[in-house]
UniProtKB/TrEMBL annotation:
Top-level division of the source organism's lineage: Eukaryota
S-S bonds: C37-C118, C70-C75, C124-C322, C202-C234
GO molecular function annotation: heme binding; lactoperoxidase activity; metal ion binding
Keywords: Calcium, Disulfide bond, Glycoprotein, Heme, Hydrogen peroxide, Iron, Metal-binding, Oxidoreductase, Peroxidase, Secreted, Signal
Domain Plant heme peroxidase family profile: start-end pairs: 27-326
CDD domains: secretory_peroxidase (cd00693)
Residues at the active site: H68
Entry protein name: peroxidase
InterPro entries registered for this protein in UniProt: Haem_peroxidase, Peroxidase_pln, Peroxidases_AS, Peroxidases_heam-ligand_BS, Secretory_peroxidase
Reported cofactor(s): Ca(2+); heme b
Amino acid sequence: MALGRGGSMWLSLAVVLCMSIAGSASEIKVGFYSDSCPKAENIVKTELDKAFKASPGIGADLLRLHFHDCFVGGCEASILVDSTKGNIAEKESPPNETFEDEVFDVIDTIKKRLEYTCKRTVSCADIIAFAARDSVVHYGGKYYSVPSGRKDGRKSLINETVDLPPPTFNLTQLTALFALKGLNRDDLVTLSGAHTIGVAHCPSFADRLYNYSGTLKGDPSLDYVYAKKLKRECPPGNTVNEVDMDPQSSLTFDSGFYKAVTTHRGLFTSDQTLMSTSATSYKVYQYAKNPNLFKKAFAASMVKMGKIGVLTGKQGTVRANCRVINYS
């Protein structure tokens, strides 16, 4: 997806996309499985509780999984599909290669239990959405009801992952990309708060430390003390190390991310750029001061994001195995 086209082109594309999103999303609803599989959400939560005990940080990746799924072709579980001899799937792309195998294994475990209880009923796409919500709640975020009834897609193509916003994007680029997904600038600021939990790999922000904008120097907007700390943890050329995105509370869903951004300690360019306009910086300061306001807004934006490009009815399918496409 090319960025930087004329404003009228962006507006037209966004309007068309929003119309198609609204048309599909109107068919998903809270309690979709109340008759067909009433224990569905409890099964998801039960298996996730086991996963959190085994791997305390896995919820951050489950939340990111929902983002990466919805931004590429809509919330239709294409990110779970394995590559085949004739097709390279989304999960092989650089932004998705950082997911640990255990993330996909947890989804597989949940799916197996659901298939045993309610055969070919609960979609992989809905499992991702439920798991993201339960992860937010596990770390201290606000519970929200997840509209469900999504169907799974029948394709997964590596070249479509260009729709994922990279950590190097500025506010203008991010706003344009979010608009194409039916999300506004407030949603952008709010959903960026997902970075209050989890870790990041050194290559995703190394340019801010050693060669910002081709200057062979660090990003001048990055707090000097924080930059020194990051350099110790991510020496030049390191591709393995990880750092907490919110060092003060990496496993707590709070407003620490926004507090960091207000002090020039946003890890990514795409984080710190939230301070580049008065409107977005005002929202950042609001969230930094009022965690409950952030948590409530985040829940609402997650529901909105979860409606991007959903497939319902005969538009999609329900995979028995989340890793394998159903062509029927």
